[in-house]
Amino acid sequence: MAALRKMLGDMNGTAAAALMRLIETQSRETLTRWAAAYAKERYLPLLKDEPEIFPQMERTVSAVEGFLSGEMTLKELKPVLASARSVVKELADSRTPDPVSLAAARAVSTACAAAQTPTNAFGFLLYGAAACAYHSAGLSEAAATYDRLAEEELQRALLSLQAVFVPDEPHPVSIRWNC
């Protein structure tokens, strides 16, 4: 059995490299819209059985959607994002959390924070890959199984971003990858 990790994904893998290259061509708004929608679709459902965290993550996604539609400013959104991070930290610190739920909560919180930090549009996927791998395979598989499932999740995310990317985006984000 492999030790469970907070994040999964090969930073040198083809999907990760392609995601990073594509992220560099997109605006903060495009990345935030995609990250929040992807997290809502893929990772938020993994939290349905966590009554102490699901409502907060749902509110956070909703707040980001409000920000993207102009109903809320970034200044108003920042406390919501901080609250989501705090709830995830409390979950991690307060008990022995379910690894799937904890990774999914980290993924949703981090995806929503792409509104503030564009590199989170990639980082959330590493938490999400862990959530999906542990959810699919259980918690006692070999590392190779988790790595394969993580690569599949990153490929799925790449296809999703390719489906919504804006060609010749006029204001792409400026990113320095520290990985």
Total strands: 0
Largest sheet: none
The global form is: globular
Low-confidence stretches: none
Describe this structure in words.
The chain is built from seven helices and no strands. With 179 residues, it is mainly α. The chain has one domain. The longest helix is centred in the last third of the chain and has 22 residues, at 143-164. It is globular, with a radius of gyration of 16 Å.
Short description:
The protein is an all-alpha fold and 179 residues long. The protein has one domain (28-164). The protein has 7 helices and no strands.
Annotation keywords:
about 180 residues; 7 helices; Imm-5-like domain-containing protein; Imm5-like; mainly alpha
Break the fold down into its secondary structure elements and pairings.
Layout: H1 14-23, H2 28-42, H3 54-68, H4 74-94, H5 99-112, H6 120-137, H7 143-164
Helix pairs in contact: 1-7, 2-3, 2-5, 2-6, 2-7, 3-4, 3-5, 4-5, 5-6, 6-7
